[in-house]
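Researcher: Here's a chain I'd like modeled. Treat it as a single chain, no partners, no ligands.
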Amino acid sequence: MTLYNLLERIVNNDEYHAKWLNTLSYMENSGARKISASEHPSEVNLIQLKHAAEEHRHAYYLKKQITKITSSFCENYKKEYLLASASTRQYLNNLDVKTCKYLQNEFSLTKEQLKYAAYLFVTYAIEVRADELYPVYQEILTKYSSKIMVKSIILEEEGHLEEMISQLDHFCEQWKIHAEHILTIENDLYQQWINSISQEVLKTEHA
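Model: Modeled as a single isolated chain. Structure tokens:
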């Protein structure tokens, strides 16, 4: 099932849609927490603070959107309120772990330097993914005249991607070569995540 077809099914089912928004909110919140966890005890730059704040706001915004669909669903991030909860919880963690292992093999970094490098490459990969996923979602929302909108998130994620590229330029001249490896890792995890969601949606439809 293509991403477009999957999101079409989700948008046209209120329960799926509420869980999808909650799942995206969980991912944004997890991203914000990981950005904060990667901060150096003292050498924190403005962009890192901005990213963490905006990802937290995205998590809040997406959570609030659920009330346009239902008033009594997805109170928190418990597994019953997420789509493909196991895969959703593993996605970002696995990307972080695999990225750290790759960077350890490629660079000689201190613990703090590794945390910062992982922040740069993981965030870059996630922003590349967001630039693909959110516009498709918005296209379907527009098609079905949904009250839900993610245009503001799309604009901010585009800005984040530009900022990550700028930071990576300063980190390493050859960053694009390393980023390709991280994007390959991310793509494998993303496909697992989307496949898990597709299986859950199809299984429920045929139940």
